[in-house]
Amino acid sequence: MSLETKTNCKRLFTTLFGIVLLGGGIGLATAAEIGSDCMASFCEVLSEKLGFITIGQLTSVIELSMLVYAFFTARKTVGIGSFLAMLLIEFPIDLAYESVPRTDNYAIKIIYVLIGIVLISFGAELIVHAKLGMGSYEAFMYSFVYRYGWKFTNVKYVCDSLFLLMTILFHGHVGLGTILTYLLVPKCMEAAAMLIHRIRFD
């Protein structure tokens, strides 16, 4: 096996592992039932309103629209990894959401959310670092970074704020988990990026 093939296999494995972590983190945080990350919270309430589509499936639909936008505005953010994330993300989300034991213990609920935040942050950054194409949400946000020179963390806060606003308008569940993910995920992603940056594929 050539060095290039080995490198591409490592990048593919990293992307797939990132998808599992990202989706699992979203499902875990949502299963805590004290509010999940802003996009997942919006998908949750819209899924309940529509009644015929799961949270994971709705996430894939929204990510497709984001991926189309990123493809035309910042094509370098889009690759095979982007399509893999869009197609596969629903499975770890729905699996984690359905599998995690529900609890009335609020402390455990918070632990669910905090673990979910870590998984989301590291999963998203692993996909970015693999350089086979960013996840749809990240590609969408980075399109503004590359086009206008805005700081990623600020773009993340703006996008999350819009999803949070739509969740409130649809009378969705906004709780402590939503606040924690809103405040902590962007900073946790920065920390994850610094650690993951040390991973080499050659």
Descriptive key words:
globular, 202 residues, mainly alpha, 9 helices
Explain what the structure shows.
- With 202 residues, the chain is mainly alpha-helical.
- The chain has one domain.
- Helix content is 78%, strand content 0%.
- It has nine helices and no strands.
- Helix 2 crosses helix 3 (55-73).
- The longest helix is centred in the N-terminal third of the chain and has 29 residues, at 3-31.
- The model has no long low-confidence stretch (mean pLDDT 88).
Indicate the topology.
Elements: H1 3-31, H2 38-50, H3 55-73, H4 80-88, H5 90-99, H6 106-130, H7 136-148, H8 152-169, H9 176-196
Q: How much helix, percentage-wise, in residues?
A: over 70%
> Could you give the count of β-strands?
0
Number of helices: 9
Distance between the termini: 13 Å
Summarize the biggest pleated sheet.
Answer: none
Taken from the alpha-carbon principal axes, the silhouette is: globular
What's the average pLDDT?
Answer: 88
Q: What is the ordering of alpha helices and beta strands?
A: HHHHHHHHH
At a glance:
With 202 residues, this protein is mainly α.
